[in-house]
Amino acid sequence: MLGSPVANRLAEATSPYLRQHADNPVHWWEWTPQALAEAAQRDVPILLSVGYAACHWCHVMAHESFEDHQVAAAMNDGFVCIKVDREERPDLDAVYMNATVAMTGQGGWPMTCFLTPDGRPFFCGTYYPKEQFLQLLSAVRDTWRTRRSEVEESSDHISGELRKMAGGLPDGGPAVSAQLCDAAVAAVLADEDTARGGFGGAPKFPPSAMLEALLRHHERTGSMPALDAVSRVGEAMARGGIHDQLAGGFARYSVDDAWVVPHFEKMLYDNALLLRAYAHWARRTGDPLALRVAGQTADFLLRDLSADDMFVSSLDADADGSEGSTYVWTPDQLNAVLGADDGHWAAEVFAVTAAGTFEHGASVLQLPADPQDTDRLQRVSAALLAARAGRVQPDRDDKVVTAWNGLAITALCEAAVALGRPELLAAAARCARAVLDLHLVDGRLRRSSLGARVGDSVAILEDHAALATGLLTLYQLTAQQHWLESATGLLDTALTHFGDPQRPGRWFDTADDAERLVLRPSDPVDGATPAGASLLAEALLTAAHLADGDRAGSYRRAAAETLAVHTPVLARAARSAGHWLAVAEAAVRGPLQIAVAVGSADSPLLAAARRLAPGGTVVVGGALDSSALLAGRDRVGGADAAYVCRGTVCDLPVSDVGDLAAALDVPV
């Protein structure tokens, strides 16, 4: 009943992050119309707290404030308190993060926002220590009661500014061209840290999408500086503490500029994107480190982030309230597990020192160089991993996010080709089927689920686009028509519900029939994950050559419009446009299409086409007329034949692997 005392409502949430707060004395609500109505009826502001399960400082603020009865009493008395998982509701996170950055100059999580009952922000920040938070609660409550007109004026002004900011890109920009891609790559390489790998300074985030873009640029132009940059950062990350040297997988970012000390949370999206990049690097160069790391990352996904054939969101940064405690070692701990001889050797191999590289004299394991005795390394690593399993382990966020599973499907498919591991393709197919079965409800996609229970939050643009790309990748490797049909269904929904009817090529992140917020978010910039619009551009560009008839034409037009509208991102902020650059590189090449007419599915020519194809190439194989790309294309003289096309221009068919490599201008 509105206005009555309420209890904490998070126990039945479909977000493990929200459930972590179910025992707080705070009377938390989820974001619902009922919560906003409660604030209006009580005539109090909304206190919105946004975070995610693997966030270290979210846990700190929870322990200091949300579990404290004095703080909870102040929150309950003066506010309707709403807790949001940013991964479950990225639309809300985007709106209020923009407000936080606009007001404070920076953002982050936990995010703390004070809103009017109709959702307009009037004060925003991030983490607050307990005493400072109590003072803030008192000040906001008093201002609401005694200076309401100032609050209303401020919230109106902020909301208006946010709507202006939501206009996004300027009209007009350079054409999508080889020159634009070349200039963007040059701008990125000018900012490379050639000594330590990566771009910019600390903290350093894995530049996953940019690695894919640089590899595609190298394949198009032969640029060795682009490939060298990939090799430098790929090796630096693989040998640094950001990479789990015992179990595989990557942490979210490095707090230093040398990739030594990570922020220990492990995210599905990071590892999916990095798997794709390392698999591509391995396929193109055969680099042993790239091959090993790609395999370890795939194994990490299958072992540590899988549930019910799908992939869960993350592993926490903390274990038993201490950040990184599961992963770090001292020399004495190595000796206790391995004995003095192996312990001393392991300390040298993994750069574990008496002084330590982390807190309290502990070190994050690194692998500065591969030791000659690989058998000893495997034995020592197995012993340390077994001992580590006896420590308190990080919590796991078992929420399944549609977009991130789409990224994982694509990465596993590409890793299956690069590593020659068909079981990865099988895992991708199982994941795709499970996501479609659970998350597609009454013909519309949902954002997330927990266990067998799908969440109420509707899917956003990135969910449709990332999953569509994964399904299109599956279709290319399996020739199973249902993957193509499911992908085009998602793209048709995106075209219908997410486009800006006033500005073709621009996209909103939320559907036109989704909940109305203070503004309708539309962020064209690639971040830790690619922008929804850049993911959609990739899916449309691929689908345009796999679909047929009018549908293919509509995808082709939408892809061209999307790239054309977003060239200002590439021209002005190339570092924040890694995935845009990857898609543009593919578009500039045509994109390349390889249709292989085969007599059997295990055709050596088809396998070679998949192995040799530059990133972003559309590759299909099958019998005459079995797909749109194979219409009218048959084997030649009884031999399998590959038809290489660039856009709408096709070469003569070839049946020799060497001739195919020459047609693609790549080494065999």
UniProtKB/TrEMBL annotation:
Stretch forming the signal peptide: none
Domain Spermatogenesis-associated protein 20-like TRX: 8-162
InterPro entries recorded: 6-hairpin_glycosidase_sf, Ssp411, Ssp411-like_TRX, Thioredoxin-like_sf
PANTHER family attached to this UniProt entry: SPERMATOGENESIS-ASSOCIATED PROTEIN 20
Name the record gives this protein: Thioredoxin domain-containing protein
